[in-house]
Amino acid sequence: MHKRNEMMDRPVINNDVREFLRRDQKQLEGKLLEIEKWANENRVPVIPHETVAFFKWLLPLLSPKDVLEVGTAIGFSAALMLESMPRDGHVTTIERNPDMIAKAETNFKLLGLKDKVTLLEGQANEWLEKIKSNSKDFIFMDSAKAKYYSFFPECYRILKMGGVLAVDDVLQGGTILNDEKDIPKRTRKIHRKLNEFLDVVLDHPAMDAVILPVGDGLLMITKRDEADFSFMKEE
């Protein structure tokens, strides 16, 4: 059911500091804590606790009411965001893996969130094209890393002016700056496409962007102006 992801074991910061961030920051409670523990024990790739703590701090400040997530997995991050959003907030989340969809639906039901979540089943690129422009306050992209480049144009179009796009796992266990020849062949496409993605967004005049060294690197983008990124879409 779950593919091994070796990047889960490669901290982008000192390992002792990482463990401190995961152990000593405020922990979750109740059923959401149980889901987090289950995911960690079963090696299911959900956002690590330092990212959890950051979202728990960030979302109340942004107070988004309409959120899009690309990559539902077992529904943990969607549930976490809803816990930190206004009561009338809603999350639309996209997932293609049938096993993940089934587990996410179970978790949403367990947490009493079925009315607050719209789970779209299928390919993200197809669903993204159908979502209205400038309609989402916050977008969390945590899907196939090699697809970030081609998903970005639609995500940026969908994001409201002043809205925030969070993109997870952009540092690849600290290997993002390595020469491509030193990257295992099976992950070279991810390495190349992530670098191409970062080359576009980090210094683009239409947005403010910053990478935070939490988890495996969390890229935060604020939309400041409209821009055409159609050149990034797959043919």
TrEMBL record:
GO BP term, example: tRNA methylation
Pfam families: Methyltransf_3
Top enzyme class: transferase
Keywords: Methyltransferase, S-adenosyl-L-methionine, Transferase, tRNA processing
GO molecular function term, any single one: tRNA (uridine) methyltransferase activity
EC number: 2.1.1.-
Catalytic activity: 5-hydroxyuridine(34) in tRNA + S-adenosyl-L-methionine = 5-methoxyuridine(34) in tRNA + S-adenosyl-L-homocysteine + H(+)
Tree of life domain: Bacteria
SUPFAM superfamilies: S-adenosyl-L-methionine-dependent methyltransferases
Quaternary structure, from the entry: Homodimer.
Family to which the UniProt record says this protein belongs: Belongs to the class I-like SAM-binding methyltransferase superfamily. Cation-dependent O-methyltransferase family.
PANTHER family in the record: CAFFEOYL-COA O-METHYLTRANSFERASE 3-RELATED (PTHR10509:SF14), O-METHYLTRANSFERASE-RELATED (PTHR10509)
HAMAP family per the UniProt record, alphabetical: TrmR_methyltr (MF_02217)
Function: Catalyzes the methylation of 5-hydroxyuridine (ho5U) to form 5-methoxyuridine (mo5U) at position 34 in tRNAs.
Name assigned to this protein: tRNA 5-hydroxyuridine methyltransferase
Gene source species: Alkalibacterium thalassium
